[in-house]
Automatic annotation (TrEMBL), chain A:
Transmembrane segments: 21-39, 46-64, 70-96, 108-126, 155-177
Protein name in UniProt: NADH-quinone oxidoreductase subunit J
Reaction catalysed by this enzyme: a quinone + NADH + 5 H(+)(in) = a quinol + NAD(+) + 4 H(+)(out)
Top-rank taxon: Bacteria
Xref: PANTHER family: NADH-UBIQUINONE OXIDOREDUCTASE CHAIN 6
UniProtKB/TrEMBL annotation, chain B:
Transmembrane portions of the chain: 7-26, 79-97, 109-132, 153-174, 180-199, 228-251, 263-284, 296-318
A GO cellular component entry from the record: plasma membrane
Name of the gene: nuoH
Enzyme class: translocase
Family that this chain belongs to: Belongs to the complex I subunit 1 family.
Name by which UniProt lists this protein: NADH-quinone oxidoreductase subunit H
Enzyme Commission code(s) on record: 7.1.1.-
GO biological process, one term: aerobic respiration
One MF annotation (Gene Ontology) recorded for this entry: oxidoreductase activity, acting on NAD(P)H, quinone or similar compound as acceptor
Pfam families: NADHdh
Job of this protein: NDH-1 shuttles electrons from NADH, via FMN and iron-sulfur (Fe-S) centers, to quinones in the respiratory chain. The immediate electron acceptor for the enzyme in this species is believed to be ubiquinone. Couples the redox reaction to proton translocation (for every two electrons transferred, four hydrogen ions are translocated across the cytoplasmic membrane), and thus conserves the redox energy in a proton gradient. This subunit may bind ubiquinone.
Catalytic activity: a quinone + NADH + 5 H(+)(in) = a quinol + NAD(+) + 4 H(+)(out)
PANTHER family listed in its UniProt record: NADH DEHYDROGENASE SUBUNIT 1 (PTHR11432), NADH-UBIQUINONE OXIDOREDUCTASE CHAIN 1 (PTHR11432:SF3)
Membrane topology of the entry: Multi-pass membrane protein
Automatic annotation (TrEMBL), chain C:
Name assigned to this protein: NADH-quinone oxidoreductase subunit K
Subunit-structure text: NDH-1 is composed of 14 different subunits. Subunits NuoA, H, J, K, L, M, N constitute the membrane sector of the complex.
Keywords tagged on the record: Cell membrane, Membrane, NAD, Quinone, Translocase, Transmembrane, Transmembrane helix, Transport
Keyword Phosphoprotein: no
Enzyme type, top EC level: translocase
Location within or outside the cell: Cell membrane; Membrane
Species, as recorded: Actinacidiphila guanduensis
From TrEMBL, chain D:
Stored Gene3D superfamilies: 1.20.5.2700
Location of the protein in the cell: Endomembrane system; Membrane
GO biological process: ATP synthesis coupled electron transport; electron transport coupled proton transport
InterPro entries xrefs: NADHpl_OxRdtase_5_subgr, ND/Mrp_TM, NU5C-like, Proton_antipo_N
Highest taxon above the source species: Bacteria
Keyword Transmembrane helix among record annotations: yes
Domain NADH-Ubiquinone oxidoreductase (complex I) chain 5 N-terminal positions: 68-115
One GO cellular component term: endomembrane system
Designated name of the protein: NADH dehydrogenase subunit L
Transmembrane segments: 6-24, 36-56, 76-100, 112-131, 137-157, 169-188, 208-224, 245-263, 269-296, 303-321, 327-352, 373-394, 414-438, 459-481, 493-515, 644-662
Keywords, in A-Z order: Membrane, Transmembrane, Transmembrane helix
Native source species: Actinacidiphila guanduensis
Membrane topology, record value: Multi-pass membrane protein
Length: 187, 320, 126, 663
């Protein structure tokens, strides 16, 4: 059987232009899902649209040949973070259907700030990277797991360990915060 | 063009496997449970040994009315079975069946890919439970989410141990590195992986989220007809995927006599044996309590899997 | 690929997240928006890693770190939100105004009976 | 032990005693008395040993430089010569006597621990001043004495008089200290050193650029410390302190420091004839004025205080005629008998229950109540009036002899006019001294009237100390006048016929005048009823309390601390129309009040107005404006985190745009 090893799902099938077009299309999906996430009045729907956006971002990582990151994205974000968020929504009695007050009174200010930020940043970014190209084709690129792993454990060991301590602290913190005090003692 | 055709063919093959194997497992479960529990019902349909029972079930599901509760969130309610089922289909692509590229798509970080995508399946349960607008459903959804969170970690750790041993994340690569003594070396990890997998599938004895005697089938309470069938199908597909993964990771996949020619048969055989064990466990063990379940994950599985990782590391360093 | 695609995607995603953080009322929705912003940063990191192609793979390593920190942040954030909800029966950001100048009226009540039910819940869970 | 180490121990011991006393005073009351007496007594013994070993030999110098200062160096220096060791001996003797006396005098005083510690510190500071060879170190002791006198004079701070007196003592001496400090710096700048030996050699080599200015600046400080006109006014008021303190200040420490300093730095002064003239004028005015004032005082201690001022005037006069031997001789003998006078006065006040001469003169049998005090006080008053052969006679004659010498133009650097001034003033003062000494004795001990209250026997420490001090009072002058020139290395100090006869005769004239005046007004005294005796006949009450009460009630009874409206007072007859003015120190305080205090008060009220009405308005405005602004800004504090964050991010965007456009 003729075996073809593709180093990254997706990119191997596509020509450079194809990658570009796919990237833009998926990007539009991501943006759309993100927009719905921040505007929908149904709380759980927001979380589900967030899944779409995050999954789309994982695909974008694949297109950028960062395969390992992509799977981490799926594992952590889609598999855990969103589940936690849904968990939180359900524990705080998220209603089914539209909440009339999902947005606060700040929404017009928020819209202004967000639009201004978007405008400024797009302008700056477009101005800065007008003629910059990245090569997403080379085989066995930086996204390969082996490469990422060796760089992570060779050059980034110290930050990695520091991160472990941070995670431990977060774990302890979350436990302390969510533990119920025994009866008779003040909160 | 040849590449595209090749890829297309593989996808079709995977789809076929996905449609066939879970049904086989379902039928086997019927029969095995009937025999073990001395139940006569499933032995009648179709005459010989009740061969048509599965077909009858399918017809029954198809006939039933597709009910959506009035207060439910319709779209989410309808979407949930698909979300529960699809990840297993995607995962099947990456599981190698035989040597020489007998696999849907050899993903570089295959192990990681598989675990990541399997984690998405729980979203289906959550969506179903919440969208049903039923307190039992919500409880079931919360339970399954908690269970998934708790068992994801030992499962990942056990898988990491194998990846360490093989020095690769690619599933065909792992099988390629296999030696027979690995089964003993990685025994603890294998048991942890298999147990945690059972828990993620919410199979007995880890089936509190769907415990019918406590919360009336949990997240699936409001489901009827084909949608309910899809949930059942996702459960059986999960069994297939879990058994296949365990086979690939811990039992050597296609390794066996005449592996070059009938390797795929070995894989299927081992998977089938494991599937039988899953069914067997369902019949033999009582259900754990919710707190026992959590305690089991945190105080038994995680330490054992960590010990396995330590052992793997030590052996790796010593032998290299 | 033109670097501007991921860059602009990141910018727009970031701005959407920004809007969400500022405009959403429910604390968990705010957390979601924060996740969007973090992801926008991650896209940037990955894209620039690809562009610079340095031997350290700084961008990807940092992305992994960001994801990890985001996971920790969501855990702690949810714990805090749940605690707030348990104590107050509401997780609306704009009602957590204890630090405000006293004597200013609270925003209108959430929904008829909503707070009362929340209080019951708070007592039940406390 | 070396001489230097011994000498260093002399000031160190009382200092350590003071520190220990202050630290332990509250916690270990049992240690307080030993800690007060023993270090001082040991220090006295050590001073005696130092004096014996130093003897008449050449001056001993030792110096240790702690750290370089960058410009004029400062040394921890010792300079031991005849002047220093003898004065240190005097200081040790008086301090020991005062401490022993205080044991009884302040027996039950709750503030005794701090009192004793401060007295020890005072002693240590004076010893430091005496022994040191460096002006900067001397200045340290000088200032420590100032602050100690402030504490001690204010010991009875419950009374208005004590509070006012302590502040006055502090401020007036400080007024002199400021120019003094400048003078010291000017001196050091010219000489290039703070070492006294170096300064003296520079001065005698004519190396000082502005000797007159420096001498006058130094004189200001000396006038403050040694209570010379016009800065003497604090001394009479300082009588509001306990009697032992008065004895200490007047006899040995504070006031002696100024004289001692001029004696040490005499070449600096003799370099300027003008300074000598000023000093002579100052001394003359001080002598005569204080003599007149002493004659009019009602308070027994104030009489003694003015007499101190007068005797200090003698010393200053001796210095003005360039004879420091005579000055120091008089300082030594005066120290002994003046300490005796004050301590005896303390006994008398205790016995009489009042400090008013008017009251005492109407009290019978006071002499019998306190025979020790009466005898020793009589001796000391005779010494004060320079009756031969008591020690005061010899020392005073040495001063007069020096003045006569200068008046004849025989002393180098000293103008004859200066000599004449001092001589005439000294002789006039001799009359006055004889008069007020007699008046004091007559009014105190020879009064008639109801019996003095009976307090039983006076405590032994108090009377014993009196007799101890009586020995030098009687014998020191006669024994020492032949030897002292060896110690001082100077001219002979013996009395000459002219001045001796003249001075004694004049003193006798004064005494006789006082006696006859006393006899003349005796009937009036008997006729005019009273003047109240402070009724506190309780025998157990400690002496200091009696004195404190006497001071506190004096004004209520007589209207004025300085004078009582008493026609039976011989001083009134002798002074005639001058009496009123003399009783109030010639109204110098009033003059100061008009000249300095009132303008200052006016200025302060102006400043207060400016502060309250003008500055305060701005301050209030400055406070009000932020208040208003704060109220405005507070409106923005909604408590809504999203609003804050929105504003923050909007600001960030604006900044980014600015940077992007600007950069």
């Amino acid at each position: 059987m003729n075996v073809v090893h593709h180093n990254a799902a997706g990119s191997g099938f596509l020509s450079p232009t194809g990658v570009e077009i796919t990237f833009v299309l998926v990007g539009l999906v991501v943006l759309g899902a993100a927009l719905v996430t921040v505007t929908t009045r149904q709380l759980v729907h927001a979380a589900l649209w967030l899944v779409v956006a995050l999954g789309g971002i994982a695909v974008e990582y694949l297109l950028l040949t960062a395969e390992f990151i992509a799977w981490v994205q799926v594992l952590i974000y889609v598999g855990s973070v969103v589940v936690l968020l849904l968990f939180g929504l359900m524990l705080t009695k998220a209603p089914i259907g539209r909440s009339p007050d999902a947005d606060s009174e700040n929404r017009w200010v928020a819209l202004g700030v967000a639009l201004a930020a978007a405008g400024t940043l797009v302008w700056v970014v477009a101005d800065a990277f007008r003629s910059t190209w990245i090569d997403v084709h080379p085989a066995n690129g930086p996204g390969a797991t082996a490469v990422t792993g060796s760089s992570l454990f060779r050059f980034w060991v110290l930050p990695f360990e520091a991160l472990s301590v941070l995670l431990l602290a977060a774990l302890v913190g979350a436990i302390v915060l969510s533990r119920r005090r025994p009866e008779g003692r003040d909160r | 063009m040849n590449d595209t055709l090749d890829a297309l063919l593989r996808l079709v093959a995977v789809l076929v496997v996905f449609l066939v194997l879970p049904l086989l497992v379902g039928q086997t479960e019927h029969k095995v449970m009937a025999h073990m529990q001395g139940r006569l019902g499933p032995m009648y349909a179709g005459g010989f040994h009740g061969w048509a029972q599965l077909v009858a079930d399918g017809v029954k599901f198809a006939q039933k009315e597709d009910v959506v509760p009035a207060d439910a969130d319709r779209r989410v309610f309808q979407l949930a079975p698909a979300v529960a089922l699809l990840p297993y289909l995607v995962v099947l692509i990456a599981i190698p069946v035989g040597p020489h590229g007998f696999v849907g798509e050899a993903v570089d970080a295959g192990l990681f890919f598989v675990l990541a995508v399997m984690g998405v399946g729980v979203l289906g349960s959550l969506m179903a439970g919440w969208a049903s607008a039923n307190k039992f459903s919500l409880l079931g959804a919360l339970r399954s989410a908690a269970q998934l969170m708790a068992y994801e970690l030992p499962m990942l750790l056990a898988a990491a141990s194998v990846a360490m041993a093989a020095g690769t994340l690619s599933l065909p690569g792992i099988v390629g590195q296999y030696h027979w003594w690995w089964t003993l070396w990685q025994l603890m990890g294998g048991l942890v992986f298999f147990t945690a997998g059972l828990a993620e599938l919410q199979r007995p004895p880890f089936d509190m989220p769907v415990a019918d005697s406590e919360i009336i089938f949990g997240a699936y309470t409001e489901y009827t007809g084909m949608r309910f069938a899809l949930f059942l199908l996702s459960e059986y597909a999960g069994i297939v995927v879990l058994c296949g993964l365990t086979t690939v990771l811990f039992l050597g996949g296609w390794h066996g006599p005449w592996a070059g020619s009938v390797g795929w048969l070995w894989t299927l055989l081992k998977t089938a044996v494991l599937a039988f064990v899953v069914i067997w466990l369902r019949v033999s063990y009582p259900r754990l309590r919710e707190d026992q379940l959590m305690k089991f994950a945190w105080t038994v599985l995680i330490p054992v899997s960590l010990a396995q990782i330590a052992l793997t590391g030590v052996v790796k360093v010593v032998t290299s | 690929m033109h670097l501007i695609y991921p860059a602009v995607l990141a910018v727009l995603l970031f701005s959407i997240g920004l809007y969400g953080v500022l405009a959403r009322r429910n604390a968990i929705l705010v957390l979601m928006s924060v996740e969007l912003m973090l992801n926008a940063v991650n896209i940037n990191l990955v894209a620039f890693d690809r562009w610079l192609g340095d031997g350290l793979h700084t961008g990807q390593a940092l992305t992994l770190f960001t994801i990890t920190i985001a996971a920790a942040e969501i855990g702690l954030g949810l714990a805090i939100v749940l605690l707030v909800y348990r104590n107050r029966g509401s997780s609306d950001v704009d009602r957590l105004t204890d630090l405000a100048d006293p004597g200013r009226p609270l925003p209108e009540q959430r929904a008829p009976g909503g707070t009362a039910a929340g209080d019951e819940k708070a007592e039940a869970t406390a | 032990m070396t001489l230097t180490a011994l000498a260093a121990l002399v000031p160190a011991l009382p200092f350590l005693g003071a520190a220990a006393g202050l630290l332990l005073g509250r916690r270990a009351p049992g240690f307080v008395r030993p800690l007060a007496v023993l270090p001082t007594a040991t220090s006295f013994v050590l001073a005696a040993i130092v004096a014996a070993r130093q003897g008449t030999g050449p001056a001993t110098d030792a110096a240790h430089r702690l750290t370089p200062t960058g410009s004029v160096p400062i040394d921890i220096a010792l300079h031991l010569d005849g002047f220093a060791v003898l004065i240190a001996l005097l200081v040790g003797l008086v301090a020991t006597c005062v401490q022993v006396y205080s044991l009884s005098y302040l027996r039950d005083d709750p503030r005794y621990p701090s009192y004793a510690a401060v007295v020890s510190l005072f002693t240590a500071a004076m010893l430091l001043v005496v022994y040191t060879g460096d002006l900067m170190v001397l200045l340290v002791g000088w200032e420590v004495m100032g602050i100690c006198s402030y504490f001690l004079v204010g010991h009875y701070w419950e009374t208005e008089a004590a509070r006012a007196a302590s502040i006055k003592a502090f401020l007036v001496t400080k007024l002199g200290d400021v120019p003094f400090l400048i003078g010291v710096f000017a001196l050091a700048a010219d000489a290039g050193t703070f070492r006294i030996t170096g300064i003296l050699s520079t001065a005698s080599a004519g190396g000082l650029h502005h000797p007159t200015v420096i001498a006058l600046l130094l004189l200001a400080g000396v006038a403050g410390k040694s209570a010379q006109f016009p800065l003497h006014t604090w001394l009479p008021d300082a009588m509001a302190g306990p009697t032992p303190v008065s004895a200490l200040i007047h006899a040995a420490t504070m006031v002696a420091a100024g004289i001692y300093l001029v004696a040490r730095l005499l070449p600096v002064f003799t370099a300027s004839a003008a300074a000598l003239a000023v000093l002579a004028a100052m001394a003359a005015v001080t002598m005569i004025g204080s003599g007149l004032a002493a004659l009019a005082q009602d308070d027994i201690k104030r009489v003694l205080a003015y007499s101190t001022i007068g005797q200090l005037g003698y010393m200053a006069g001796a210095l003005a005629v360039g004879n420091r031997d005579a000055a120091v001789f008089h300082l030594l003998s005066h120290g002994a008998f003046k300490a005796l006078l004050f301590l005896a006065a303390g006994v008398v006040i205790h016995a009489a229950g009042t400090n008013s001469l008017t009251a005492m003169s109407r009290m019978g049998n006071l002499a019998k109540r306190v025979p020790d005090a009466a005898w020793t006080m009589g001796l000391a008053l005779a010494a004060l009036a320079a009756v031969p052969p008591l020690s005061g006679f010899f020392s005073k004659e040495s001063v007069l002899r020096a003045a006569e010498h200068a008046a004849q133009g025989d002393t180098a650097h000293v103008p004859a006019a200066v000599g004449w001034t001092v001589l005439v003033a000294g002789l006039a003062t001799a009359v006055l001294t004889g008069a007020y000494a007699s008046r004091l004795f007559l009014l105190t001990f020879l009064g008639s009237g109801p019996e003095a209250p009976d307090h039983g026997k006076q405590p032994v420490p108090m009377t014993a100390v009196l007799w101890v001090l009586a020995i030098p009072t009687v014998a020191f002058g006669g024994l020492a006048y032949r030897r002292l020139p060896d110690w001082f290395g100077g001219a002979p100090l013996g009395p000459t016929l002219t001045t001796g006869v003249l001075g004694t005769a004049l003193a006798l004239v004064g005494a006789l005048a006082a006696y006859s005046a006393w006899r003349a007004v005796g009937t009036t005294r008997a006729a005019v009823p009273l003047g109240a005796v402070v009724e506190n006949a309780d025998a157990d009450v400690e002496p200091a309390l009696v004195e404190a009460e006497a001071i506190a009630t004096h004004k209520e009874v007589y209207g004025d601390i300085a004078a009582a409206d008493d026609p039976g007072d011989p001083g009134r007859l002798l002074l005639g129309p001058l009496h009123g003015a003399a009783a109030h120190g010639f109204r110098l305080d009033a003059a100061y009040g008009a000249l300095f205090v009132r303008p200052v008060l006016a200025a302060t009220s102006l400043v207060r107005f400016l502060d309250r009405e003008v500055v305060e308005t701005w301050v209030k405005g400055a406070a009000g404006a932020p208040n208003l602004l704060g109220a405005a800004v507070r409106k923005a504090q909604t408590g809504n985190v999203q609003t804050y964050l929105g504003a923050l991010l909007a600001g960030a965007v604006v900044l980014a745009v600015l940077v992007a456009v600007g950069g």
